[in-house]
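TASK: fixed-backbone design
INPUT:
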């Protein structure tokens, strides 16, 4: 079997299996990078989403910048990024943020820059102009660096998607997150087919950029349903897929339905490659932006 079932009602939450336990920590590196980020008013999804790989990535000088502020207009069940209401005046858009991201990326001497964002459904363009300007600023500061964008769906506004693509990212990433059957519970303000359309449009609009998408396992999907998502992604022209184990970031988020064994992740990797993906990064601790530079290199070799 590829799953480890979880007993409900455990007061302390489910015990992590051995393959999901992180032992490496580097508090000094984490605190120093956090200090520099806060000094420029910047956020990372590594922190806001409570990524289990944060210590490892910060230690090697890698981070995924999260722009458009640190408040999201959506309430996805899996995500711990702070939420806000689009009807309230609690959102802020810092016009200096694009330049500050570029400044921080240059300070870190990054050769591969990953930029993501919260959802900003309160903005007419979904924040796409701000997103595009951030890419351009990074290009000015680090002309030799590769840039990966991990975008929201912009409510299906393909003009907004085009705006980000025209800024010239090397990789366009938009996560499916889960199987279609679980969307109402996991991504209630999103639409499975709409996300596929965003990815298909990106592939057509900027074919020289790699298209990429990621999903989580352990939310109650069946193994063959994950295969179904991989098929849909390939049909949409996606070239790189990531699959990782969902871990409940806070008690307010959806519980973990099961822990998927490493051999199942390997089976999904092999299946994805058989469909024609250039790269399938699949494993318990894989995240969409984890080792993004190495995933990109492997995809180009493939």
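OUTPUT:
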């Amino acid at each position: 079997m590829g799953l480890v079932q979880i007993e409900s009602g455990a007061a302390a939450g489910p015990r992590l299996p051995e393959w999901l336990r992180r032992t490496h920590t580097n508090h000094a590196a984490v605190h120093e990078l956090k200090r520099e980020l806060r000094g420029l008013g910047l956020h990372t999804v590594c922190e806001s989403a409570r990524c289990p790989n944060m210590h490892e990535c910060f230690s090697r000088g890698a981070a995924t910048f999260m722009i458009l502020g640190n408040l999201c207009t959506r309430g996805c069940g899996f995500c711990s990024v702070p939420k806000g209401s689009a009807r309230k005046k609690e959102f802020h858009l810092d016009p200096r943020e694009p330049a500050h991201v570029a400044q921080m990326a240059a300070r870190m001497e990054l050769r591969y820059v990953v930029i993501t964002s919260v959802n900003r459904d309160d903005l007419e363009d979904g924040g796409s102009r701000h997103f595009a300007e951030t890419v351009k600023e990074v290009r000015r500061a680090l002309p030799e660096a590769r840039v990966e964008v991990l975008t929201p769906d912009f409510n299906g506004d393909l003009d907004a998607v085009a705006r980000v693509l025209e800024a010239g990212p090397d990789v366009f990433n938009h996560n499916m997150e889960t199987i279609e059957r679980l969307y109402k519970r996991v991504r209630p303000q999103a639409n499975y087919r709409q996300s596929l359309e965003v990815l298909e449009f990106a592939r057509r609009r900027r074919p020289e950029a790699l298209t990429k998408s990621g999903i989580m396992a352990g939310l109650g999907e069946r193994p063959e349903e994950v295969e179904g998502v991989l098929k849909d992604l390939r049909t949409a022209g996606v070239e790189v897929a990531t699959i990782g184990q969902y871990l409940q970031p806070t008690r307010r988020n959806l519980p973990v339905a099961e822990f998927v064994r490493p051999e199942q992740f390997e089976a999904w990797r092999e299946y994805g490659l058989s469909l024609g993906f250039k790269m399938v990064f699949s494993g318990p601790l894989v995240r969409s932006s984890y080792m993004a530079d190495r995933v990109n290199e492997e995809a180009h070799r493939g």
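COMMENT: Confidence is low (pLDDT under 50) at residues 7-12.
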